[in-house]
Amino acid sequence: QLRLMESGGGSVRPGGSVRLSCSASGRTQDYYGMGWFREAPGKEREAVSCVASRHGGTYYADSVKGRFTISRDTASNKVYLQMNDLKPEDSAVYYCGASRDPLVRCQRRHFDDWGQGTPVSISS
Predict the structure, then answer these.
(1) What is the 3-state secondary structure (H, E, C) of 48-63?
(2) pLDDT of residue 79
(3) Rounded CA gap, 81 and 96, in Å?
(4) DSSP 107
(5) What are the pLDDT digits (tens) for 33-54?
(6) With contact defined as beta carbons under 8 Å apart, do 6 and 76 qualify?
(7) Is 108 exposed, middle or buried (0-12, 13-18, 19+ CB in 10 A)?
(8) Distance from first CA to last CA of the chain, Å, rounded?
(9) Pick from 4, 56, 35, 54: which is nearest to 111 by CA?
(10) Are 65 and 48 in contact, with CB atoms under 8 Å apart?
(11) pLDDT for 12-33, tens place per residue?
(12) Any long-range contacts for 101-106 (C-beta under 8 Å, 24+ apart)?
């Protein structure tokens, strides 16, 4: 099991930017993908963006395309989520996840380990 630790959440105004970081420790070689998910109050945890650890392929939810960018640093076992042009509907607790799914399907049920989450709040 991986240990995942997120950082970088906070409160910003609409249109602002936040960069989330996730550090992974453990048997990272057993995992094929990393991803960011979010959970707003009263809603299910949803996929935001995922990246394949080996070839770097990415997935973005339609709601964040063009605004968010996922990246990875394989040498340090970190994954980042740069979030720009933030909107109030982006407010949620953001979770870093790790997947042992070779297909790296960016869906909650295909992710195995999770961080503790970091809150992001967008309001004026």
Answers:
(1) EEEEECCCCCEEECCC
(2) 97
(3) 10
(4) S
(5) 999 999 999 999 999 999 998 8
(6) no
(7) middle
(8) 39
(9) 35
(10) no
(11) 999 999 999 999 999 989 999 9
(12) 101/32, 101/33, 102/32, 103/32, 104/32, 104/33, 104/50, 104/51, 104/52, 104/53, 104/57, 104/59, 106/33, 106/35, 106/47, 106/49, 106/50, 106/59
Element of type H or E holding 34 = strand 33-39
Angle at 49 between CA 43 and CA 54, to 5 degrees: 140
Residue type, 20: L
Q: Residue for token digits 């740069």? A: 82
Closest CA to 21 of 110, 95, 109: 95
pLDDT score of 101: 95
β pairing state of 33-39 and 10-12: unpaired
The C-alpha atoms of residue 120 and residue 10 are separated, in whole angstroms, by 5
Residue 64, amino acid: V
* Cα torsion 85, 95, 57, 62: sign: negative
